[in-house]
Amino acid sequence: MDKPTTKAALPAGSGSSTVESGPSTPNVIPGASAGIIGLVLAAGQGTRFDPSGRLNKLMQPLPGGMRVVDQTIARVRAGVDAVVAVVGALDSPVAQHLQQLQVPVVLCAQARQGMGHSVAAGVAATQAETGWIIALADMPFVACETVQALAAALRAGAPCAVPFFKGVRGNPVAFQAAWRSTLLNLTGDQGARHLLQQPGVVQLNVPDPGVLRDVDTPADLVGVEIRCRAGSWPVPRPDPGAG
């Protein structure tokens, strides 16, 4: 089973641009130790949004002016102690943008092989005392209250917590720190999905349709704008902490 090869980019002003390690050496970002860490997975190719690859969906503006990735990070940040993003290339527009915002980023060299590799790389580069909340960067409409509820479940001792909206499982997903070794061995396209079948998983019923909504195609952004204008969907507001 391939182990993730990661490189962690530090916030500006930290005195070093990257930290690199091999599979046998812990690769923890200095300062990325916290009670609950939000891992934002931003390494996807987004080919359905733009097959040519010219437009990165995470960099597109939402109603209200925020970029997709900025809004996601702002929502995740509302419920965690630290945020780290996992990217597929350090020279990508998303990675460079996040580093300008002083959001630590971790390079997952195996990102194209599936989301499981990205999760493993993010966990390898951080040291959570309580656990991780794993979020998808293209899901900017998750309510802050949902992230806070997931964090509360971890602090209350839940081994794993998952949000459900009207009976449908959504994202983000929260894991206790005790799951570290299991998360480090994830590979493939399914991410941590199969782990959600384990006993003890806490299902949180939330009044938040954002746990089911991602930005997959340009039509998703158009639909959001229409709902915002109709007053049926909250307009994302710029957050100073997310740029």
Describe this structure in words.
This protein is α/β, with parallel strands linked by helices and about 240 residues long. The chain is built from six helices and ten strands; from the N terminus they run βββαβαβαβαβββαβα. It has one domain (about 5-235): Spore Coat Polysaccharide Biosynthesis Protein SpsA, Chain A. It is globular. Strand 1 (about 5-10) and strand 2 (about 20) form a beta hairpin. The chain is about 25% helix and about 20% strand. Strands 1, 2, 3, 4, 5, 6, 7, 8, 9 and 10 form a ten-stranded mixed β-sheet that branches.
Spatial gap, N to C terminus: 38 Å
Q: Helical content, roughly?
A: 10-25%
Q: Secondary-structure element sequence? A: EEEHEHEHEHEEEHEH
Based on secondary structure, the structural category is alpha/beta
Shape-level CATH architecture = Alpha-Beta Complex
Tally of contiguous helical segments: 6
Strand content: 15-25%
Instruction: Catalogue the unreliable spans.
Output: 1-26, 236-243
Question: How large is the radius of gyration?
Answer: 17 Å
- Kindly report the name of the CATH homologous superfamily: Spore Coat Polysaccharide Biosynthesis Protein SpsA, Chain A
Number of domains: 1
- Tell me the CATH topology: Spore Coat Polysaccharide Biosynthesis Protein SpsA, Chain A
Shape: globular
Largest sheet features: 10 strands, mixed
According to CATH, what is the class?
Alpha Beta
* Extended strand count: 10
What number is the mean pLDDT? 79
